[in-house]
Design a protein that fits this description.
Helix content is 31%, strand content 26%. The chain has 251 residues and is α/β, with parallel strands linked by helices. It folds into 2 domains: 4-109 and 237-247, 2-Layer Sandwich (Nucleotidyltransferase, domain 5), CATH 3.30.420; 112-234, Nucleotidyltransferase, domain 5, CATH 3.30.420. Strands 1, 2, 3, 4, 5 and 9 form a 6-stranded mixed sheet that branches. Strands 12-11-10-15-16 form a 5-stranded mixed sheet. A 3-stranded antiparallel sheet has the order 6-7-8. A hairpin with a 4-residue loop joins strand 2 and strand 3 (26-27). The protein is globular and about 50 Å long. It starts with a strand and ends with a helix. The protein binds beta-D-glucopyranose.
Length: 251
């Protein structure tokens, strides 16, 4: 039997967790999803995290993603979660909630997805600069150069045409404004063009929940750089979270 870990991906709309086969990058249990409590305060999320591990019957180490900057287990920004997260020691919070005998690792959600795609997905074996973007409530970014992640890049907040990228091209914008895929793809292309002008990537990987419907919008993008869908789709965050415990990715 392969090595197993447990990853939990805390998102703006759902908190998702599963057992992960660390040797193959596949989910080794059903994915458990609980709607993100509103407001998404640290106490409410900690409770949800505990509930997911209990429902899964998992008592081992846990990797957790947060949709914000995380340095050394401390959350530094909270664009799409409650402001109480800012400067909160999330590693300590979750350790206490889960029991201090377990290793707990907390990483940025897009970086976790990046780690998973490097090992098991679309960035595997890819040299040069790969930019993974997760399209969800916000836009997350992972910068990967020759297979190494540069953590905590925050390009969802890059200014494009005077406004933050995620305020015009996140998946939530498409949903809230009821945009068609062609209308939304135009906005995503504008954002990708800005990345191209500033960073000259070799490949874009499109992740987040909407990557499941990649055939509806990825072919419409007008970037000069190739764009592929995240191979692990939305499970990349869970897989990368579980791997972070093992690899020690920025915790
Ligand atoms: C946050 C990032 C996060 C992204 C996706 C942004 O608003 O600042 O840290 O990766 O949303 O959740």
């Amino acid at each position: 039997m392969g090595r197993h870990g447990f990853g939990i991906d805390v998102g703006g709309s759902g908190v998702k967790g599963a057992v992960v086969d660390l040797d193959t990058g596949e989910l080794a249990s059903d994915r458990i999803k609980i709607l993100t409590p509103q407001p998404a305060t640290p106490a409410a999320i900690a409770e949800t995290v505990v509930e997911i591990t209990e429902r899964a019957g998992w008592s081992g180490d846990v990797g957790i993603t947060i949709p914000g900057v995380v340095t050394h287990g401390v959350v530094r920004t909270a664009a799409n979660i409650a402001p109480e997260w800012i400067n909160l020691d999330a590693k300590a919070l979750f350790s206490e909630a889960l029991g201090t005998s377990r290793a707990v690792t907390v990483v940025n959600d897009a970086d976790a997805a990046g780690v998973a795609e490097v090992h098991f997905g679309a960035a595997h074996g890819h040299t040069g600069l790969v930019i993974l973007l997760t399209f969800g409530t916000g836009i997350g970014s992972a910068l990967i150069y020759n297979g190494v992640i540069i953590p905590n890049s925050e390009f969802g907040h890059m200014e494009v045409g005077g406004r933050e990228a995620e305020h015009q091209a996140a998946s939530s914008v498409r949903e809230n404004r009821d945009l068609s895929y062609p209308e939304w793809a135009k906005k995503v292309s504008t954002v990708l063009n800005r990345f191209e002008d500033l960073l000259w990537p070799d490949l874009f990987i499109a992740g987040g929940g909407v990557s499941r419907k990649h055939e509806k919008w990825v072919p419409l993008l007008t970037a000069r750089t190739p764009v592929v869908a995240a191979q692990l789709r939305n499970a990349a965050g869970i897989v990368g979270a579980a791997m972070a415990v093992d690899t020690g990715v920025r915790h």
